[in-house]
Structure to design on (1384 residues):
């Protein structure tokens, strides 16, 4: 390593010590855990050192410093590297935390999780999504700059990634978008080590990566000796910083497991080095004290570089902040606190008997537009379905290379990338509120990102229209069936399916107020009789009800005496209208209680007592939702839904064929009640009312 | 259009008439349906005409002709074009079928569905997946060639796609793989019309597509006047056919809605032209008789070109087939019939008390290898997780550019692409049996393809290992929680989670015998006490039980008298071992029946009587599965599972923390039984036993 050092004007022997110390520290963490990935950290220690010592700005004493550079480790399995760097640079991560790598409830889990570890900007590990989130952060940084000026927000997003990330389609989608948007505040360093889990990248990955990124309109640079040539890495990054109108990819040639006897082998990717190999490596790196004994000179080097730079930067920034207009100062303070504007709820539209019939996607468009006008931190767009999802923002314009103040993102037909980019916008740290839109069925194109966002506790609103077979002619390739259960079964994701405009409004209230997780709002393509439904939801009924997830729409609600109800119909979204029609038609014959189940996850979270008040024990319950019935057995004795995939046909034919019209529902209710009476069976307690 | 025609040596005025007739026919279909996408068919009619009249080989009288060229419409919304071409070329699609476009139960749904329409090779519409399936077909064609020789199998896969497909990550993954594999039997024609739903492609898609594909090591050609220059299209395709060792992308510049007053506008993408515009267009195209009145010369032209070519080809092929060795003839006949080899079940390994403890992923590796040796049509691989998923095929080698007889595919870290490619292998039509492998959690990266394969009724086996939080240290980013419910709620997908090697074997039997849909097999990373579990599954118990999805493992099974059971524990996969341990430990105190729920979808399909015999009414049921409990309320009074995301920690800590060990389960069972007794409540009937 001495050769490279001697040639470099910006680095000395302490830098060399730092690089060696990082690799050995990370390898020791993996060895102590007896689990993990040492190879990539060992191969990327030089890159990491250059970034922290010479390049990045951040304050370990205040990891939320708004104008910090962002560091994203897209190849999250290399997190022993990230944790090592955070520790060495003074973040709230002790040596003992490092030694608890991959242990229960430690701050150092097997892949980085933003909500667990100080200084981790976003969760990574599922490959490709770090890069995609970095694209979102770069968008957020540009938008922030448009709000507060280039002196206030000018950070760069530095991202490390490996071969795996570059093979993932989510990454391809995001980097194509980044090139289109000319995000010159994004620098990706590619750990080009020729090795993946199966062996050589020659097995599966022989494309010309630099040429591909050039085609995406990226600036592409390379460093030949990425394990040793600190100066080369530094020079490349500086060149990238100086490049305008393009993001930069720096292809850094490295050896996985650099310096060990297993260097260059896939065997060093996902398993500890082993005692012998580690000892030899430690010795070769000149660190006889062992991996966890860090030379004070290493800490000192980072303190005087990254540490000092960050402090200076934050002081300077605070001074600049004083110069902002009062209005901007108020806005910035509010955003940093994560508070919504005062009285923002007054923007929520109200619907009643005078409202015209329309699809809930249209009502959602109205609500979204009303809120976007009042809440400047709402930013989002659609995957090339703007006219269909009704998400155009009339109060703003497109976010493009020439219009960074635009709040509407044209994502292109890139669902997975869009969702991950949305997560990145949320993860940026200014409490921006991303929304992303497509057909509910195409949520399945990007569930990997929906999941990572839920795990990362990021507020992100998924506007999902065309939410059932009732979308009609486009047919089963576009008709969601299993999407709602897939969402409802995901931890920390709330799934809403509002029945009318009032529920749409109130759903947005809940989604915006929820700061620790994402929400899906499922909306109809077909028209809903808003006047009919809003008669029941108006006057604060929905406003009160939606927080409980499911609530009684007709009758006296929870105060109603149980024995007067013959049957409950629990429905969601556009099928609530059918339930209300059935209840009205059956009046006199059967007392039908209608329950709107806008969000079953919230209903699950209510008290047993509340759930009993909505679905009284002893009363037969029928559910109706134009979706898979999977999961509904918990809430209903009979579930009306879609048993297989949908069909391509006009709406009226679909309604008839699948039984989603009022006459079919009425008949179904009558027959179900009659059949149960005839069976002589006691109405069994529903699982949602079980005492466990 | 006359100019282009006059210059071309291979086309005459009837060809011109054909092109005009196609566009008008497709536009009329959309108009009659009052729904659909006229613009792309109008813009691609020249391409389609060249393909059918001059290029492709197929037999409309026998659309299953094994050596036919395959046509894939990746931009499936343009299916009015595909249906028109199939009709004009004599496939089982009448004019009346065309006039029933997008009507209930017609053969002409809104997007192409392979199982509904003669001549449709694969379902498309969800963008990008047509191209990816085409890559799979190209792999299948090369493998078929390696089996039977280049005279028997030498077809080309022709694929049309639009801007949307090229923006999708699934497409990027698949085409990178196709370039790596040098699939020169794949030709993609890109309908480069500058328009997507939001408007101009300038809004979101400004990358250099030809350069990107060149980087993927594709041959890239272009045609400037794709609406008129039939000769140019033909010449480009011929050049592509002549190109070896590379797939070809032909960028064909077209105008969407060509020839109409709405030409070049996104308004012609997804809505009918309208009567006035259609009338003007029809007149301009010189077709005064109207769109559905096809000039007999058009039919004649296709009969003398595509029709004659296909008949000749099939005759020639049948003669060549005679020359195959007896062994090859038998194999080919068997494959075309879709039958498995005789006595293939004898290859299934059997496990008993002498079996060593090991993870079910390892047992699956053994079963897969035993079967692959006996069944040459099994072909598959992993998304760069071969050492982890244990899917290496010891009886074969890699499928690569230089080894087309290899049956192991190195997919790279490209899950979505892998799943879609697997679908394409299944859709190729030779009854090849694809398997694809990754961690269960990363099924979420490609659910869009899993769904399309289920809808398409394709046999495809998803080998999904690391199937729960019990994978340990890799943590929540890798630990599936909602994956099982997401699979179980999907129509026509079977989800298996075998408890030991005998169930793994029997699961493969079911998955292979199932020819009309895909299956997921979920497998553990952690070790299972095979000797313990196999004591209960051996001697044909699993063989008999698995077909019913869930069955009694201990006691006398269904003959056992109900009153002797105190509590049932229904478990899946690795948790069955815990249930058996608990039952053994509680013997004397509580009579615990253990039910192995290997496949709840199959259990749902059994008779109510059978389900009652497994879960007797009046008996308390506890479920345990190291996954979300979503959906389990149907089968159990109490569900033990994972409530949120997982955690990164060693296995023992995870077991302790989440309660997945025998002592915790025993305690839980005891407490549940005691609590229920104390409550004095009748044990309610479970939803799975409801009479509806």
């Amino acid at each position: 390593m001495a050769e490279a050092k001697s040639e470099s004007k910006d680095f000395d022997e302490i830098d060399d010590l730092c690089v060696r110390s990082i690799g050995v520290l990370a390898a020791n963490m993996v060895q102590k855990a007896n689990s993990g990935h040492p190879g990539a950290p060992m191969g990327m220690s030089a890159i990491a050192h250059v970034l922290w010592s010479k390049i990045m700005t951040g304050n370990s004493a205040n990891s939320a410093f708004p104008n910090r550079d962002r560091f994203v480790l897209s190849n999250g399995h290399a997190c022993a590297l990230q944790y090592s760097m955070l520790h060495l640079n003074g973040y709230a991560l002790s040596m003992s935390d490092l030694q608890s790598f991959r242990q229960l409830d430690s701050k150092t889990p097997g892949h980085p999780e933003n909500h667990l570890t100080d200084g981790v900007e976003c969760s990574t590990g599922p490959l490709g999504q770090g890069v995609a989130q970095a694209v979102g952060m770069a968008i957020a940084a540009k938008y922030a700059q448009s709000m507060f000026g280039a002196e206030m927000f000018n950070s760069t997003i530095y991202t490390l990634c490996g071969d795996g990330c570059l093979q993932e389609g989510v990454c391809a989608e995001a980097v194509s978008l980044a090139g289109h948007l000319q995000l010159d505040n994004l620098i990706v360093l590619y750990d080009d080590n020729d090795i993946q889990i199966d062996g050589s990248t020659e097995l599966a990955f022989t494309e010309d990566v630099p040429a591909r990124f050039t085609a995406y309109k990226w600036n592409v640079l390379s460093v030949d000796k990425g394990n040793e040539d600190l100066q080369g890495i530094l020079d490349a990054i500086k060149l990238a910083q100086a490049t305008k109108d393009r993001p930069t990819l720096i292809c850094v040639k490295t050896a996985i497991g650099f310096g060990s006897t297993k260097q260059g082998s896939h065997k060093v990717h996902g398993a500890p080095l082993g005692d012998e190999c580690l000892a030899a490596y430690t010795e070769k790196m000149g660190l006889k004290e062992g991996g966890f004994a860090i030379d004070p000179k290493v800490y000192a080097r980072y303190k005087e570089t990254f540490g000092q730079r960050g402090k200076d930067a934050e002081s300077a920034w605070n001074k600049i902040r004083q110069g902002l207009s009062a209005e901007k100062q108020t806005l910035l303070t509010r955003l940093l606190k994560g508070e919504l504007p005062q009285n923002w709820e007054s923007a929520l539209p109200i619907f009643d008997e005078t409202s015209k019939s329309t699809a809930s996607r249209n009502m959602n468009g109205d609500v979204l537009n009303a809120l976007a006008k009042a809440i400047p931190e709402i930013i989002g767009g659609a995957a090339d379905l703007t006219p269909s999802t009704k998400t155009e923002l009339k109060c703003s314009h497109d976010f493009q290379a020439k219009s960074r103040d635009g709040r509407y993102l044209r994502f292109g037909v890139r669902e997975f990338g869009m969702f991950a980019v949305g997560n990145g916008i949320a993860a940026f740290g200014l409490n921006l509120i991303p929304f992303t839109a497509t057909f509910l069925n195409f949520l399945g194109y990007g569930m990997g990102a929906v999941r990572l966002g839920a795990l990362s506790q990021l507020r992100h609103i998924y506007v999902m229209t065309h939410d059932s077979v009732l979308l009609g002619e486009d047919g089963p390739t576009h008709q969601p069936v299993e999407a709602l259960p897939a969402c409802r079964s995901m931890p920390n994701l709330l799934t809403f399916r509002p029945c009318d405009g009032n529920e749409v409004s109130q759903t947005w209230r809940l989604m915006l107020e929820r700061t620790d997780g994402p929400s899906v709002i499922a909306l109809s393509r077909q028209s809903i009789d808003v006047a009919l439904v809003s008669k029941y939801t108006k006057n604060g009924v929905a406003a009160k009800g939606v927080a409980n997830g499911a609530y009684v729409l007709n009758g006296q609600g929870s105060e109603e005496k149980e024995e007067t109800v013959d049957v409950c119909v629990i429905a969601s979204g556009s099928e609530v209208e059918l339930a209300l029609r059935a209840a009205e038609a059956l009046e006199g014959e059967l007392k039908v209680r209608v329950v709107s189940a806008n969000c079953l996850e919230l209903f699950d979270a209510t008290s047993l007592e509340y759930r009993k008040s909505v679905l009284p024990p002893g009363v037969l319950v029928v559910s109706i939702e134009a979706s898979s019935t999977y999961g509904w057995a918990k809430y209903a004795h009979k579930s009306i839904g879609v048993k297989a995939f949908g069909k391509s046909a006009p709406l009226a034919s679909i309604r008839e064929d699948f039984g989603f019209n009022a006459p079919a529902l009425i008949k179904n209710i009558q027959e179900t009640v009659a059949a149960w009476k005839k069976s002589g069976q006691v109405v069994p307690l529903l699982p949602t009312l079980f005492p466990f």
